[in-house]
What we know:
Shape: flat
Number of strands: 18
Radius of gyration: 31 Å
Oligomer: single chain
Number of helices: 16
Amino acid sequence: MSQLLIQLSHLFKSFGDFPLFEDISLSINEGDFFALIGENGAGKTTLLQLLAGVIQPDSGDYSRSSSVSIGFLPQEVVLTNPMLSVREFIESSLLTDLEKEMATCLEDPNRLAEWAELHDRYEHLGGYRRIPIEQVLQGLKLESSLLDLPISHLSSGQRVRSALAKALIENPDLLLLDEPTNHLDQEMLEWLEMTLKQRKGACVIVSHDRKFLNAICNHLIEIKKGKLANYGGNYDFYLAEQERMLERQIKAFEAQQEERASLKQKIKAITFSKRKPPPAKDRNVMAYDKRGEKHQKSLQHKLAAMKARLEEIEANLISHPKPKSIKGLRFAESPLASSIAIELDHAGKTYGNKVLFANFCKTISKGDRILVTGPNGCGKTTLLKAIAGIIPLDEGCIRSTPTAKIAFLDQEVELLPMDQTPLEYFENRFHFSEEDLRRELHKFALGGADLLRRSFSTLSTGQRKRMMLLSLLLEKPNVLLLDEPTNHLDFITLEAFEKALLDFSGAILAVSHDTTFIEKFATQEWAFENGKLH
C-alpha cells in the first residue's frame, strides 16, 4: 500500500472578501502524479502554496508526516538575495546544511554520536535519493559557467530553470511544479519527462502543455467554483470523461423537458376538457352519483399529484448542459493591402560576442503561419522583438508595408505597465471607460472584471496574459508576433485563442515549444541552427 504524504480536509481559503476554496479535501499518496487545471485565477498556484506550506488555510486540517520532504517550483522566482550565486541558490537546502554539519562532526572524534544522529536524519529526509547536480544541469542546459554568477544576472528563463534544477536535485517525496515547461525547449522537455517518470514520489503539476500532462500524469484535479474535482487519469481521460458527463447531462435535461411537457399536457387535458357525464343507464341514480363522486375524487387526486410533480420539476430545472467555451474571441483585422507584410534584408544581431543571426533575408506574407524553432538562448525572442521594433538590429534592415499593423505578445507579459491597473491601461491606450472595458471582457468571455482596479503587478501571470490578449484583439492587427503564446493560459482560453489564430487571415510569426499548438498552427518553419537562421 502506497504511503499517504499529505491530507487536506474541509479546507477553506479566502482572499479579502473573495472565497477561493470552500470545504475542499485532497489526499496525495506516493506514486500519484496529478495534473492541476482550472481557469486563470481559479486558485491553482494558491493550492500549490497551501500544499507546500508557504501559506496557511483560513480553516480546515492540513496534515503531513514530519518525514515527508517537499520541493516547490514557483511560477515566478522571487530573489531574496540577488547576490547569491547560482550554485549557492541551487544547493541551498536543509540536506546541504546537514551534509556540511556531518562533515564538521567527522573532523572531531568527540562528535561521532552527533554525526550518527545527523546521518539518521539525513537518510530519513532522503539525502541518498538526491540526483547529481551535473546530471540536472546538463538536462536543463544550464552551463557550468553560470554557477558562479549572481542569480540576479540570469535571464528570467534561466532563473526558472535554476529553480527547477534545485527542486529536482533534492528528489523530494512530493514535487509541486507550477508551469515547469514554460522555459524548456523540446530536448529539455523530453529529459524532464524521463526524469519525472523515474521518480518514486508524487507530483502535482500545473502546465499548459497538454502532451506533457498526458505523458506524465495518472490523476487530474480540476478547480472549479472553489471546489476540487478528482479524475483518475490524464488530460485525455479528463476530456473523454467530460464528454461522457455531458452526454449524461443532456439525457437528463431532455428527459426532464419531456416529462415537464407531458405533465403540462395532461394537466391541461384534465382541467379544461372535462365532459358532462352521460345519464345513468339503469336508472339507479344514487349508485351512479356515488360512482361519479369516486371518479371525481380520483381525478382530483391524480391532478394534484401531477401538479406537485410539475412544481418540483420547475423548482429544480436543469439548465441546458452546454460545454463552457469562449466563442467571441476573434480578431477584427485591419486591411493588409500588400501580399508581403514584412521583409528582412540581411538582418543581423549579436549579443556580446555571440552572433545570434546574420545576413538573414526572409519575407513574411499575408496568410503565413511561421514557427521559429531552436534551443533556448539562440535568439528567437530577440528576432521577434527586432521585428516588433522593440530592439534595434546591428546590421541590415527590416521593412514593413505601410498598411502592416504589428502586435507583439511577449512570453512573460512583462511589457504591461506593472504600476497601472487594467482600467488605467485600457483608458490610456484605447480611451475606454470602465463600462466599455467590462463590456469587452464580457464579449470575449475573458472574465477578470473584478480585477480592473488592481495593479498588474498584483495579478497572476495568467490573469495578465488574458488582459494582454484583449489588448491584442483591440489593436486590430494584421501581423502577429507571438512569443510562447500558450504559456500561462487556462485550457478554455487556450483553445479559443488557437481557433482565433486559425481564423486569422493576416501573418503570424510564433515561438512555441507546445507540441499540440505546433501541430495545429504551423505551416512553415524558421530554424536557428549553430548560430544561423534558416
